[in-house]
């Protein structure tokens, strides 16, 4: 997954995501507004249908009283007058049928001047016959021949409250009302979009501010962890000698080998931490052993070897430093076996420790000590080659050989601020970049 520093993330990614979220919410709200408007129209037409049926029933009763005829005959007479039986300002019923529970049509009326009546009638016939209860109805909107229609079914209830028949019809919404509804929907959609955009615009600076605060906190925490790494590693390095340059050199050697091998971010972090803390356990070794100028006897060497377990015990107490155990706990293992403390072989040894073994020995060979002069590059590489498959992983040794000359010229025997600055740049790349650490501004590392 691609990562970005926080400033770029906020301006590129956060803006994009807010824009997408705004668009999605706006479309959703607009769709909801449209559906709501359609449902409102359907409810209004259903009410009109009920009112229309009530009006129709009243007219039928009047005909029955005036002409002393039965209900069906009176209904047919009312519907046969040639004009729509019910007309409202919002539109009119252009097709009206009354049927009983057997689905038999008792009477029908239609507007002869309505365009597209064949399509209207086809639509009505294609609908399943519905039998709603006393307080029920069925409503469906449809567009036919460019016009807006509402298909509705309502019960016909007598004076005793019983359903005696059912009425269904197609209500043609008047062009004026359809236009009004169109603009009402458009207004609602634009209003919804405006509200969503306004909310997003108000939230953006708040999110930016909060992320900045969180990033500052994360940066300070990262710096504190890096300072712990630097201080702890430098303290033991200076106890072992008068300089901490060795820690910087082996960390840089190891990191460059790791890069040549294509290690990922997490593996590089482990490698850098472990390299800088590889000898942290020596803080528990008595001065008489640690600082002895001559060769150690067997007992003293056993005490010196214990610095590995001591280092593991120290590093594992910190959740942030714990992965450094991959180097601190295994950097004296040998690829062919015979190392300590676990006598591991081959790929059973963590790759960070196998990389560090090459870097550590190369730095020791090319550095001056009170008891020896530094070896030349060629002499050091020859000794490393003699340890192929016995002490060193051949794959790592081959990767190092390709870059060794340049690294030797940059680091061998060097001390001072340049090493610190280069390691700080590496730390910034691998510990401070990306949203997982919320980089905000410059981060100082490896001090």
Descriptive overview:
With about 450 residues, this protein is an alpha+beta fold. It folds into 2 domains: about 5-175; about 220-430, Hypothetical protein af1432 (Orthogonal Bundle). Helices cover about 60% and strands about 10% of the residues. The protein has 14 helices and 6 strands. It has helices spanning about 5-65, 70-80, 115-125, 175-240, 245-260, 265-275, 285-290, 300-305, 305-315, 325-330, 350-365, 375-385, 395-410, 415-430, and strands spanning about 85-90, 90-100, 105-110, 140-145, 145-155, 165-175. Strands 1, 2, 3, 4, 5 and 6 form a 6-stranded antiparallel beta sheet that branches. A hairpin with a 2-residue loop joins strand 1 and strand 2 (about 90-100). The longest helix is centred in the middle third of the chain and has 66 residues, at about 175-240. Residues about 435-445 have low confidence and may be disordered.
Topology:
Elements: H1 6-67, H2 71-79, E1 87-88, E2 91-99, E3 105-110, H3 117-126, E4 138-144, E5 147-157, E6 163-173, H4 175-240, H5 245-261, H6 265-276, H7 287-290, H8 298-305, H9 307-315, H10 325-328, H11 351-366, H12 377-386, H13 394-411, H14 417-432
Antiparallel strand pairs: 1-2, 2-3, 2-6, 4-5, 5-6
Helix pairs in contact: 1-2, 1-4, 5-6, 5-11, 5-13, 5-14, 6-11, 11-12, 11-13, 12-13
């Amino acid at each position: 997954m691609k990562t970005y520093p926080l400033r770029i993330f906020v301006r590129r990614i956060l803006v994009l995501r807010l824009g997408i979220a705004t668009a999605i919410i706006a479309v959703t709200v607009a769709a909801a507004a449209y559906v709501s408007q359609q449902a409102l129209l359907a409810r209004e037409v259903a009410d009109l249908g009920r009112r229309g049926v009530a009006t129709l029933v009243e007219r039928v009763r009047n005909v029955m009283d005036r002409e002393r005829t039965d209900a069906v005959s009176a209904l047919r007479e009312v519907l046969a007058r040639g004009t729509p039986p019910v007309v409202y300002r919002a539109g009119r019923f252009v097709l009206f049928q009354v049927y009983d529970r057997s689905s038999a049509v008792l009477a029908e009326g239609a507007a002869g001047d309505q365009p597209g009546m064949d399509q209207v009638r086809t639509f009505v016939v294609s609908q399943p016959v519905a039998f709603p209860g006393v307080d029920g109805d069925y409503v469906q909107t449809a567009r036919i021949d460019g016009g807006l229609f509402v298909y509705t079914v309502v019960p016909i209830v007598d004076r005793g409250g019983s359903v005696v028949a059912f009425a269904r019809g197609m209500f043609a919404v008047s062009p004026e009302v359809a236009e009004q509804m169109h603009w009402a929907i458009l207004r609602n959609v634009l209003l919804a979009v405006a509200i969503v955009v306004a909310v997003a615009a108000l939230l953006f600076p708040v999110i930016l501010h909060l992320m900045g605060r969180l990033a500052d906190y994360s940066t300070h925490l990262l710096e504190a962890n890096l300072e712990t790494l630097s201080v702890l590693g430098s303290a033991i390095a200076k106890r072992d000698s008068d300089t901490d340059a060795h820690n910087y050199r082996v960390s840089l050697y190891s990191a460059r080998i790791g890069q040549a091998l294509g290690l990922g971010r997490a593996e590089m972090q482990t490698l850098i931490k472990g390299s800088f803390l590889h000898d942290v356990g020596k803080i528990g070794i008595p001065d008489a052993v640690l600082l002895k100028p001559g060769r150690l006897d067997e007992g003293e060497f056993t005490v010196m070897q214990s610095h590995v377990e001591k280092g593991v015990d120290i590093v594992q107490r910190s959740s942030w430093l714990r992965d450094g155990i991959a180097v601190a706990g295994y950097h004296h293992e040998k690829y062919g076996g015979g190392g300590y403390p676990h006598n591991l072989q081959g790929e059973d040894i963590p790759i960070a420790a196998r990389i560090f073994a090459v870097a550590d020995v190369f730095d020791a060979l090319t550095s001056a000590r009170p008891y020896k002069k530094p070896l030349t590059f060629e002499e050091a590489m020859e000794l490393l080659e003699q340890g192929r498959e016995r002490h060193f992983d051949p794959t790592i040794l081959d990767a190092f050989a390709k870059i060794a000359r340049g690294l030797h010229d940059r680091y061998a025997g060097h001390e001072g601020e340049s090493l610190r600055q280069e390691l700080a740049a590496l730390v910034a790349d691998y510990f401070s970049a990306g949203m997982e650490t919320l980089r905000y501004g410059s981060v100082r590392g490896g001090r």
